[in-house]
Amino acid sequence: MHDRFKLTYFEECEDRIIEAEEGLSRMQEGDTSSDTINQVFRAIHSIKGGAGAFAFDQIVNFSHQFETALDFVREERLEPDRNLCDLFLRANDIVASMIEMEKAGEQIEQDYGSEIRIELEKIVQNITGAAPKETSQTHAESQNENTGEQTWAISFRPHENILKTGNEPLFIIQALQDLGELTLSAEVDNLPSLSTLTPENCYIGWKIILKTSAPEDEIREVFDFVDDLCELNIEAQNVPLGNEPERRAPTEPEQVLKKIKRKEDRDAVENAVIGKSSIRVDLERIDQLVNLVGEMVIAQSMLQEQVRWLPAEAGGKVTEGVENLTRHMRDLQESVMAVRAQQIKSVFTRMPRIIREVSNAC
C-alpha cells in the first residue's frame, strides 16, 4: 500500500515539474504575472509537501530553499530577472533529478545540488539578513539550534468546504513541522456517522503545540491560503526572557493589501483546481478498454455485412438500427482512442529552453 502511494506521488511530481518549468520559461520571457509565479510556487510547494510525507529529507531541504526564494518573488521583494530565472530552472532540474533518484531507490549524496542550494541561500540571506544554513541540516534542526525558542498553542479547525477549494490541511501541518518541533491532537467532535459522512468535506480540526524560534508572522504565513477557510487561533505559551518581540498593530492599508494578496493567491489555486479535472487510470485498464472496443467494432462490421443479405421488406428496420449502431460505435472508438493518446506537450515545452541554452553556449 505504501509503495502504491509513493508511485502516485512520483507520477504527480512529473506533472508538477513540467508545470514549474513551463512557468519558469514564461517568467524568463518576461511573463511575471501573479498567475505564472503562483503556478511555479504551487508546483514546488506540492513536491515539498509530498516529500515530507515520505521522509525524503533531501528533497524537502532543497525544495524549502527554492520555495522560500519563490515566495520572495511572489511578495515582490525579489525581481525575477533572466539570471534568477536561469537559477530557478537549474534548481527545478535538481529537484527533478532527486525525485528520479528516490524513485529508483538510489542514495542521494548530502552535497547533491549544493552549488545551486548555496546560491538560493545567498538570495534568501540578502533579503532576510539571516545566516545561511548548513546543507546537511534539516530546516527544523536549524531552527531548534537558534536561541529564543518559543512555544505556541495553535487551534486549527478548517471549514467543511476547504478540500473543495484545492487546499489540503495536512500540507499546512507539514509546513508547520518545517518550522520546529510539533505536537498535535485531532478534534473529531464534529465527525458525523458513516451513513451521513460526505467524503469531500473536512470534519476534523487540530490542536497543535509548536516549539519554534520563528516569529508569529512567519507562523501565520503558513495559513495565508486558508485565512478565511478555517477557524484559527494562535497564542504564545511562553516568551523567553528578554526576547519578547516588540509588535506594532498593522495599519488599515496593510491589512487591506494583505487580504487582497491572500484572495488573489486563493483564487489562483481554485482556478487551477477547476481547470484541471482529470483522473489517473492504469494503462493496463485503458489497453483492455481499447481491445474490447476493437472487438465490438469487428462484431458490428460482421453484423452489418449480414444485414445486407436480408430482403428489403424484412431488413428495413434492422438496417436502420445497424446504421445507428455503426455511427455510435465510430464515436465510441474515436473517444476511446483519444483517451489512450499520450500528451507530447512536455517534449516541446523544453525546446525553447534547449535552444536558449545552446545559443548562450555558442
Care to describe what's here?
By secondary structure, this protein is of the alpha+beta class. The chain has 3 domains: 136 residues, HPT domain (Four Helix Bundle (Hemerythrin (Met), subunit A), Up-down Bundle), CATH 1.20.120.160; 119 residues, Histidine kinase CheA-like, P2 response regulator-binding domain (Alpha-Beta Plaits, 2-Layer Sandwich); 79 residues, no CATH class. 60% of the residues lie in helices and 9% in strands. The chain has 13 helices and 4 strands. A 4-stranded antiparallel sheet has the order 2-3-1-4. α1 packs antiparallel against α2, α2 runs antiparallel to α3 and α10 runs antiparallel to α11. The protein starts with a helix and ends with a helix.
CATH fold name of the largest domain, please?
Answer: Four Helix Bundle (Hemerythrin (Met), subunit A)
Terminal Cα span = 50 Å
* Main β-sheet, spatial strand arrangement: 2-3-1-4
Total strands: 4
Instruction: Provide mean pLDDT, rounded.
Output: 78
Whole-number tally of structural domains:
3
Percent helix among the residues? Answer: 55-70%
- Number of H- or I-type helical stretches: 13
Overall shape: extended
* Helix-strand pattern: HHHHHHEHEEHEHHHHH
Radius of gyration: 27 Å
Low-confidence region ranges? 132-147, 239-276
Second rung of CATH, namely the architecture of the largest domain: Up-down Bundle
CATH superfamily of the largest domain: HPT domain
Supply the CATH class of the largest domain. Answer: Mainly Alpha
Supply the helix-strand structural class: alpha+beta
> How is the biggest beta sheet arranged?
4 strands, antiparallel
Portion in beta strands: 5-15%
